[in-house]
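Re-run requested by the PI after the first attempt was lost when the workstation crashed. Everything re-entered from the original request form. Ligand of interest: magnesium ion.
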Amino acid sequence: QAKKPGRTPICFFTAEMNAQVHERMRLEQDLNRVVARGELQLAFQPIFRADDGAYVGAEVLLRWRHPERGFICPATFIPLAESTGQIVAIGEWVLREAGRQLRRWLDAGLAPGYLAVNLSRVQLREDLEQLIREVLDDNDLPPQALELEITENVLLDDHQQINAVLGRLHAQGLRFSLDDFGTGYSSLSYLRRFSFDTLKIDRSFVAPLRDDAEAAALVRAIVAMAHSLALKVIAEGVETPAQQEFLKGLNCDYLQGYLLSRPLDADHFTTFLACCARKSRPAGSSPVLLQ
Ligand code: C2E
Ligand code: MG
Ligand code: MG
Ligand code: MG
């Protein structure tokens, strides 16, 4: 190559930066049309009670089927959509589609339980209340049909306004869970100040559970603290029977993870619900929305 040796790293760096900026711009453009073109799709990952394995509800996870690039995972496009504000329209679609899907399952005589929807910080504005009201009214759903998942980092800034929005929704019967607990800048005082119902232990605490005594001590402490604040606990990312047994022993309330089920598309989830319905359930173990 004819390049001067000393300059090469800088040229390389610039080219790479350039490519990244272009890639970002293209994705950003594509994201503008994602709702209109129907490229978004929901996946549903079931959540089960730890002690008897009863199905209780599902987390809604967003999928983007890009026409040329195939599947793009949320870790790639959600941070981008958050930084551009596009997440507001995308998040609105997620909430409306989750409501429509719950209605379809109920009309089919299935028991979908509740749906837990992830919310970005940008969505926690005044108009979120109106949107949620519409989703519930349009589909004739009770507020308990939805749980809203937010991460600790959401609570870092603008406490007053976010707290007010969350508080009003909570007063209307919407439930909230604190997602990815333990990974953010958590201050335990958040747990008292905000109206959470559920705490989701991040899978980074669940993964080392098998052979790591410290990890077990941490999970035990988190569960005890959550229970003393009257919060239910969901463990995320349960991948092995050993982890499942451990979490049951640690008094964790609910489990979610690949061991129990991967996220499923709507068709597969319908089949899953139909299978749940065929299994006889002991009295009192029915999900929230039986009819
Ligand atoms: P999250 O809310 O913590 O969702 C759980 C993630 O863990 C999902 O990844 C799920 O597929 C994955 N997972 C579930 N069980 C297991 C397991 O046993 N092992 C492992 N290794 N992973 C497991 P996914 O679907 O890629 O979503 C990633 C993140 O993107 C979510 O993390 C959430 O923060 C965000 N996200 C997804 N959908 C939405 C959405 O509609 N709106 C917003 N704002 N964020 C979303
Ligand atoms: Mg989540
Ligand atoms: Mg999570
Ligand atoms: Mg997580």
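Saved to the shared folder this time. DSSP finds ten helices and ten strands in the chain.
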